Amino acid sequence: MGCKGCSTDELIFEIKIHEDQNHSMEKMVLDYFNRRGILVQTTTEGWIMDEDGIKDFYDFCRDHLDTESIFFRLNQEEWKPIKLVEPILSAEWIDEVIRKGMVTCFYQPIINRDLDIEAYELLARFKREDGSMIYPNEIFSAAKTRGRLYALDRVCRMTAVRYAARLNKKAFINFIPTAIYSPEFCLRSTVSLANELGIDPSMFVFEVVESEQVEDLNHLKRILAYYKEKGFKYALDDVGEGFSTMEALEELSPNYMKLDMKYVQGVAKDEAKQEMAMKFLKAALVVDAVPLAEGVETEEDFDWLKQNGYQLFQGYLFGKPSPDPLAKVEGIAV
Question: Please, are residues 155 and 98 in contact by the beta-carbon 8 Å criterion?
Answer without folding.
Answer: yes
